[in-house]
Design brief:
about 20% strand; about 425 residues
Length: about 425
């Protein structure tokens, strides 16, 4: 037993010693003589992504034509969406794909000016990645194409004012809000005080709209430089309330914000002339409705009131457009004309307030869906003893008309009323 175990131990020792010797011998060989390690698997270098072709979008051509382009080689269908380009049908807006993956379409614009647009790519809206010019609406961002050739909203060699984005705390709404404020040329370096004009946007838009697509600052620059308008401060508030009642339902909240927060802020932070004779308000569409609900009940604060493509929206339900096939009474959108008049009866019947109102001005296009509401509102004010000015123009509910209305309205502000021949 002992002898057998000794032999097993001896064999294990010999085997272990031989293995050790082998290791020692291999370890002493030069590296080149050792067995090569397996080479790692090699991969072909990844191909560099192809650079997209160079192109321009938008390209402004002769006669107000705009060519839109988008590089989208994998898209199935692309079209341009531009609501203010009147007559742009869905078929005419379809873009054609080139061999280089660039989609393109050329459209004609009705007149020189700014046009919002975006691209519909297989059902997804996107701005133009080649165009840095944008415009905000309430829940969207648009690209902007500018067709030059129209005064007074072209950029020209005249003194230019400044536009500030102002953040303020609305105590009436309990939230921070933003407005745009235009100050006329020379404001920063001067000491003079100026009249103030509150200018409201329409439904779905934002306080950015009047400058980015409405070109209000360039319009004022040109009118002031030519002597057609007096230098003024223009305040462009936000007409929608995030988290609040939507659209028209939030009218009174917007009015409270203007009267309790914006107006005091402007009068304490800017050199403005206070008092009724130095204060104006105007608005387009929803902003026109808000203007009437802010300025008329506070008529002692405003001497000039303008309403563009609007009136008391919802006050005349039978005149509001209805969906095809709709039956029954029209849905209420607010107070009726009789209810509104009764609510503000004391102001509407005050002869002193009426006398101090220098201008109550309405303008709407003959193709505008709110034309009936405008006419009915004008008739209501005439019946109440006011003397509104009514302008019926061509065109519809577009920024094309609202730039024109501002151009016509601003020169009438803050100037002495003409003296009648009877009083001379």
């Amino acid at each position: 037993m002992v002898q057998s175990g000794s032999r097993r131990i001896a064999r294990r020792f010999v085997s272990t010693a031989a293995h050790a010797a082998t290791v020692l011998v291999l370890g002493s060989l030069p590296l080149a003589a050792q067995a090569p390690a397996p080479a790692p698997a090699t991969q072909a270098p990844a191909a560099a992504p192809a650079r997209p072709p160079q192109y321009v979008s938008p390209e402004i051509g002769d006669g107000g034509r705009i060519t839109f382009r988008l590089h989208a080689p994998k898209a199935q269908a692309v079209r341009v969406s531009a609501g203010d380009i009147v007559g742009l049908t869905r078929e005419a807006a379809q873009m054609t794909k080139g061999e280089n993956g660039i989609w393109a379409v050329t459209v004609s614009t009705p007149e020189a000016g700014a046009y919002r647009y975006n691209f519909d790519v297989d059902g997804v809206a996107t701005i133009d990645p080649r165009n840095p010019a944008t415009s905000e609406s309430f829940q969207n961002t648009w690209s902007v194409a500018y067709v030059p050739g129209a005064q007074p909203w072209d950029t020209t060699e005249v003194p230019h004012g400044a536009v500030a984005r102002v953040t303020y705390k609305s105590t009436s709404l309990g939230q921070f809000r933003r407005m745009h404020v235009y100050t006329p040329p020379g404001y920063e370096n001067g000491t003079a005080s100026y009249p103030v004009f509150y200018l409201l946007h329409g439904a779905g838009d934002s306080d950015d709209a009047w400058t980015s697509v409405g070109r209000a600052n360039f319009i004022l620059d040109s009118l002031i430089a030519s002597g057609k308008a007096v230098p003024m401060i223009v305040v462009m508030p936000a007409g929608h309330i995030r988290g609040g009642a939507p659209g028209m339902q939030g009218t009174q909240d917007v009015v409270n914000d203007i009267m309790k927060d914006i107006k005091p802020y402007i009068e304490s932070h800017y050199r403005v002339k206070k008092g009724r004779a130095s204060t104006a308000m105007a608005g387009l569409s929803m902003g026109g409705h808000q203007t009437l609900n802010a300025a008329i009940p506070h008529l002692g604060d405003f001497a000039y009131v303008g309403v563009y493509s609007s009136g008391l929206i919802g006050a005349f339900p039978d005149l509001m457009p209805r969906p095809p096939g709709a039956t029954g009474p029209a849905p209420r959108m607010g107070a009726t004309a009789d209810e509104w008049s009764a609510t503000h009866a004391a102001v509407l019947a005050d002869p002193g307030l009426k006398k101090g109102l220098q201008l109550l001005w309405f303008a709407t296009g003959k193709d505008d869906f709110l034309l009936g509401t405008t006419k009915a509102t004008v008739a209501m004010f005439e019946k109440l003893g006011f003397s509104p000015v009514y302008r019926e123009t061509d065109g519809g509910h577009t920024w094309i008309k609202w730039r024109h209305y501002l151009t016509e309205f601003a020169p009438m502000l803050f100037k002495p009323a003409p003296t009648s021949s009877a009083s001379r």
